[in-house]
Amino acid sequence: MKQKPAPKVNILKEIEDNKTKPVYLLCGKETFLIEGTLKQMLEKLLPSDTRDFNLSLLDGNTVSVRDILSNADLYPVMSEWRVVVVDDFPAFKSQKKNASPQTSIQNAMQLESEDVQKCVADMAKILGVSTQQIADVHPDFSSSIDEIIETLGGGFTEDVRSFFTRLPQLAAQIEVHSDNNTSNNDTDLLLEWLQGDLPKNSVLIFTVKDEVSERNRIAKEIQKVGRYVSFDPLEKGTSLSRDPLYKKVVEKFATYNKKITPRAFDQLRNRTGGDMHTIAESINKIVNFVGDKQQIDENDVRNLVTQSTFDRIFDLTDAIGKRSTRHALKSLREVLASGEKPFRIISPIATYLRSTLQAKLIAKRKGLKPISRHTRYPDFIKNVFEPMAKELEDILPNSAARNVLKGSPYPAYKVFQALQTFTAEELITALEKTLEVEIQLKTTGLDGEVLLEQLVYDLCDTSKQRWN
User: How far, in Å, CA of 389 to CA of 386, rounded?
Assistant: First the structure.
């Protein structure tokens, strides 16, 4: 039987009740809920006036465990807590497996007599461990075998079981192991820290925007001393009164002093696929457009949360503006699935980047303060869009396609909100990359969908290496 996470607790309520844990693991497919929970945790733990002194945001793919622990061991400055947030720590993904590895295992077994090194290397990839860990019968190797057996319901022949028994001996025959000793040592160092005397005034938070196996050794230790919380998509309730998504949507609209009818909610769920991030964006769009109207009905959702190709492309460029890889790729795949050709998608992306660069230069010239994502749409039109459009009408192009202040205010509203996401230099590089892909789409036989996916990934990627 599949092991289930420990019963969920209200970690925010625990923090309010002075029951803060030293370490948390926030993981799962519902990234919007992870981001929202993290934001609320930081608001409760760290006063805004001292947050900069006591908050470390670390990239798990580049930071070492020693650096993580060094930050966690620092004493807070003028605050009760010091908080260290580590995003996307790879050790939590090391045991992620294919859904159906039987064929891959059979293929690896066939290599045993032909190429032992490739046989072991392929199994290491399937199991998510190093060849050295296989040779040492490391706990991660044993745990990986157990997880595959559990996933497949124990459906293994004696040949496969015998192969698993021989695998460590095969790995020991290989002179050079494709392992990562630093990574292994880092994992052991983190486990040793979790099993020791943890700091009394520091909170270490791991965020993983994917599922984390309950068998992961670090996750197991975190459950002993802290909290492991998995955020999964909300299941549809048997009735509205028992529907957790309906409750969250109602609560969100209530913060704007608005209500939504049951039929409008059903339409909102259907048009967004129940994705919390998309729902939140849709609610913001609805609230901005309906003004003082207090009850949201079906017509509001139908008119504002459409599933046309235009809206999907708009969602794509909006996600690029936030550099949200997951949501940008999701929107791209929806546009492609609707039948839109790749060469017709590249143009709106280039237009969005050009508009963002233009808006950034305008903001710099006029000394505009950053436009918050909480800025109301009517306020943006009144205080920014209309005055700037009038003042700069003789300077900017007459074409709405080349003038961010010439067309509809709403795309400009989203563009100005994204100005802090890119530097001007990054936008220029992004335009150059987009032009290169456009040329490839028109002059080569390369797969257009692959080219677009790589472009979107590059545009959303925040690592500096991508932009050099």
Answer: 5
